[in-house]
Amino acid sequence: MSSAQDPFYIVKEEIQESIDKLQSTFHQWERLPSDTGEHVHLTKELLSNCESIEWQVDELDKAIAVASRDPSWYGIDSVELEKRRRWTNTARSQVASVKKAVVAGKDLRGAGSTTINGTRRELLRMPDSHQIDRSSNQYASQNNDNFISSESDRQLLLIKQQDEELDELSRSVERIGDVGLTIHEELLAQEKIIDDLGTEMDSTADRLDFVQKKVAMVMKKAGAKGQIMMILFLVVLFIILFVLVFFT
């Protein structure tokens, strides 16, 4: 996920703008005399803004804690989590320093100038928020590049696996096609054999029918005596053939 799309960076930018505005108001508050009405008004505004920013930072910390339970689900790593925690700690310290100085100025009025100046020096020693942003953006850019690279490698691997599976499927389809063609040729050959057998049976049936008709005509012409003589002749012929086959 890019920095522009990451909710953390969207909220972070809003909070950073609030902190920058808070520090600008704080510097204006420092330059005003403590006994003026505008100074009192800015004091209330600064304290209210500090509480609002602290609440936003706390909510952002809760979101970071949720993301730390399963960083891979949110597309981040431990380095990114640590960088986000450092930023929230820095933001909280900046707000706390302003709040401390304002409370001290409110309580001590003019007597607290030394404390205010010390707090101001503390603010000046703190890291520049824009520098932190630049470092954070560099880390985010590097992490995003690594994430995009790993996703690209994973997509290429998936595409390669899909190509191999498609090649294997194509070979299987070709084998099935060859088997189907062979079966088709066998069926055509069997069909031809059946057709030839049917033709032979029809021819044999015709010849058998012709012989039966001839035999019927001969039997009819020979009469009863002729039929008996023919039967006796066939019986004698059968006996002779039986003796020749089994006794010689």
Describe the structure.
By secondary structure, this protein is mainly α. It is built from five helices and no strands. Helix 3 (78-108) runs antiparallel to helix 4. The model is unreliable at 112-116 (pLDDT under 50).
The biggest sheet amounts to: none
> What structural class do the secondary elements suggest?
mainly alpha
Shape estimate = rod-shaped
What proportion strand?
under 5%
Order of helices and strands: HHHHH
Give a quick set of tags describing it.
248 residues; mainly alpha; 0% strand
Task: Annotate the secondary structure layout.
Layout: H1 7-31, H2 37-69, H3 78-108, H4 113-125, H5 129-246
Provide a brief overview of the structure.
By secondary structure, the chain is mainly α. It is 89% helix and 0% strand.
